[in-house]
Specification:
five-stranded mixed beta sheet, PGRP_domain_met/bac, Jelly Rolls, 3 domains, signal, N-acetylmuramoyl-L-alanine amidase activity, Lysozyme-like, 16% helix, alpha+beta, eight-stranded antiparallel beta sheet, elongated
Length: 477
C-alpha cells in the first residue's frame, strides 16, 4: 500500500459534483416511502431558563437555537410512566454538520431559510413530559431557543431481523457488508425536499480519502427493535430541526453490530455528508449509535465498523494505516472526529479503539492492493486517470472502478481495459457492462478517419464525419 497516489499519502482538492453530471450511475429509487404510523414533530419555545410541559408521547428530544449563538449549556429531563428522570446534559456540538463553504438548508425556497445551531438529539424511548434548559455561559436565556420533540412512529419492519439486505459479494476487493437500506429503516424520502429543492439531489465529492468515526452521544440501552425508529428520528432532527438536507452521517452502526445506510445518494459512491464540518469533502462518516465517553463500544459494534471501513477504503485503494492531507490538515486515513476540532466526539472509550480499528481494517483488506483493476490503473498512471470516484465494485460479469477520466473494467475472459472520453460517455449510456455489448476487450485505438473500441459482442465507433460514437453489434473477431 505504499503507492504515493493511493497509499501512504494523498492530497486532493475537494470537488463537489451533482448527480446530473454522473448519469448513469447506480439507480437510486425516488418513489417516496410512506411515513411511519403515528408520527409527530413539535417545537416548544424555551422562553425562560427552564420550561416544563406535559406532552403527547414522543421518542427523541433535542434543543435548537438560531445559528451563531456560542457557549450554550443545555440539559433535559423527561417523564416516563409518571416519573421524572434526573437531569441529563445534552451535548452541544456545532462541528457536526455541513461544510461552511457548502451550507445546507439555506436555499431561498427553504421554509426557515437558515441553518440552526443545536444539541445532539437524545433518544428517550416513550416519554410523556419534558423539562428543558438552555442558557449561555453568562446564565442568560437564548432568544429563539426551542426544544424539539419527535415521535418517529412504528413500522412493521422495525422488528424484522431480515431488514438486512444481501449486498455485493466476491473475493476482491473486500465485500460490502450486510446493510439496512434507507427503505428498510423507513426513510421518508419526501423529507429531503423540506429545506429546498436543492437538497433533493445528492451531492458528491470527487473521491474517498478518509473516514471519520463518530458517536451519536445517545443512550446505550436501546433495544434492537428501537433502532430503526431512532434513525428515523435522527433523520428528522437533522433535516427539520438543524436545517440540513438529509441525515448527516453516511453510515450508522448499532450496538448489536448492524450497519445502517445513512445519507441518500448511493452507499458505494462518495456522497457528500454533513458529519465533520470543514472535512466532509472526500471523506465519509460512520456514527456508532450510543455514548462512548465512559462506556466501551461492544465487540460486535467495533467489528461491523471495521468491515464498513475496510469495504470503503479497499474499494478506493486507501491504506487504513496511512496519513492524508484533508481540509489543510494531515490526518490518519481513519480518524476520530476530535482529530479535527476540540470536541469530545467520538467519546474517549471509542477514540482509544481507533488504533485497533486501523489494524483490524488492514487485516481485513489483506495488507495490500492486488486486484487486476488496481494493477492496470497503476500501469496507466494515477496522475493520468485521476482518483477513483465509484470504487472497485462487481459488474454483471466482472469488476470495475470509475476514475476521474477513465473507467477500468476487468473479467477473466477479457482482462483489464478502460473506456475514456466520448467512448466512456456512450458506454455508460448503454449501461456499462451491459449483457448485450459486453465488456471491453481493447482500449480505444485510432483508425483512418476516426477511432474504435472492441467489446465482447460489438464495437463503439467514432468517425470524424459525424463526430458521434455509434454502437455496432456483432462478432469482434
Amino acid at each position: 500500500m505504499g503507492n504515493t497516489a493511493m497509499g501512504k499519502t494523498a492530497r486532493l482538492l475537494p470537488l463537489v459534483l451533482t448527480a446530473a453530471a454522473l448519469v448513469p450511475l447506480p439507480h437510486h429509487p425516488t418513489t417516496p416511502e410512506p411515513p411511519a404510523q403515528d408520527t409527530s414533530y413539535q417545537e416548544i419555545p424555551l422562553d425562560g431558563p427552564s420550561v416544563q410541559a406535559r406532552t403527547e408521547p414522543y421518542g427523541m428530544v433535542g434543543i435548537i437555537w438560531p445559528a451563531g449563538v456560542q457557549g450554550v449549556t443545555a440539559k433535559v429531563r423527561v417523564e416516563r410512566d409518571g416519573r421524572w428522570t434526573g437531569w441529563q446534559p445534552l451535548r452541544v456540538e456545532d462541528e457536526h454538520g455541513p461544510d461552511p463553504k457548502d451550507p445546507e438548508g439555506t436555499q431561498p425556497s427553504a421554509p426557515e431559510g437558515i441553518e440552526r445551531g443545536g444539541t445532539e438529539p437524545l433518544w428517550v424511548g416513550d416519554a410523556t413530559g419534558v423539562q428543558a434548559s438552555a442558557v449561555t455561559t453568562a446564565g442568560t436565556t437564548i432568544a429563539g431557543a426551542k426544544m424539539v420533540l419527535i415521535r418517529p412512529g412504528v413500522l412493521s419492519s422495525d422488528a424484522e431481523e431480515s431488514a438486512q439486505v444481501e449486498t455485493t459479494s466476491g473475493r476482491s476487493p473486500y465485500p460490502m457488508p450486510l446493510m439496512v437500506s434507507r427503505k428498510r429503516w423507513g426513510a421518508d424520502e419526501r423529507l429531503r425536499a423540506h429545506n429546498g429543492a436543492d437538497c433533493v439531489r445528492p451531492k458528491y465529492s470527487s473521491t474517498v480519502l478518509a473516514a471519520f468515526v463518530h458517536h451519536t452521544a445517545d443512550r446505550n440501552d436501546y433495544t434492537r427493535t428501537q433502532v430503526p425508529a431512532m434513525v428515523r428520528a435522527m433523520y428528522t432532527y437533522h433535516v427539520r430541526s438543524r436545517g440540513w438536507c438529509d441525515l448527516g452521517y453516511n453510515f450508522l452502526v448499532d450496538r448489536f453490530g448492524r450497519v445502517f445506510e445513512g445519507r441518500y445518494g448511493g452507499a458505494q459512491l462518495p456522497v457528500l455528508g454533513a458529519h465533520t464540518a470543514s472535512y466532509n469533502a472526500n471523506s465519509f462518516g460512520v456514527a456508532l449509535i450510543g455514548n462512548f465517553e465512559q462506556t466501551a463500544p461492544p465487540a460486535a459494534m467495533l467489528e461491523s465498523t471495521a468491515r464498513v471501513l475496510a469495504w470503503k477504503l479497499d474499494a478506493n485503494y486507501r491504506s487504513p494505516q496511512a496519513t492524508i492531507v484533508l481540509g489543510g490538515s494531515r490526518l490518519h486515513t481513519v480518524s476520530g472526529h476530535r482529530d479535527t476540532k476540540a470536541t469530545a466526539c467520538p467519546g474517549t472509550q471509542l477514540y482509544t479503539k481507533l488504533g485497533w480499528l486501523r489494524q483490524r481494517v488492514n487485516a481485513l483488506m489483506g495488507g495490500s492492493f492486488a486486484t487486476p483493476v488496481y494493477r492496470y490503473a497503476r500501469k496507466l498512471g494515477f496522475r493520468n486517470i485521476g482518483q477513483p470516484f465509484w470504487g472497485e465494485h462487481a459488474t454483471r460479469t466482472g469488476w470495475a472502478t470509475y476514475f476521474a477520466t477513465r473507467d477500468v473494467f476487468y473479467s477473466v475472459a477479457t482482462g483489464p481495459h478502460s473506456t475514456q472520453g466520448a467512448f466512456r460517455t456512450r458506454y455508460r449510456q448503454l449501461g456499462a457492462g451491459s449483457a448485450r455489448l459486453g465488456l471491453p476487450i481493447t482500449d480505444t485505438y485510432q483508425v483512418r478517419g476516426g477511432a474504435r473500441q472492441k467489446f465482447q459482442r460489438g464495437w463503439l465507433v467514432w468517425d470524424r464525419g459525424d463526430r458521434q460514437v455509434q454502437v455496432v453489434y456483432g462478432r469482434t473477431s
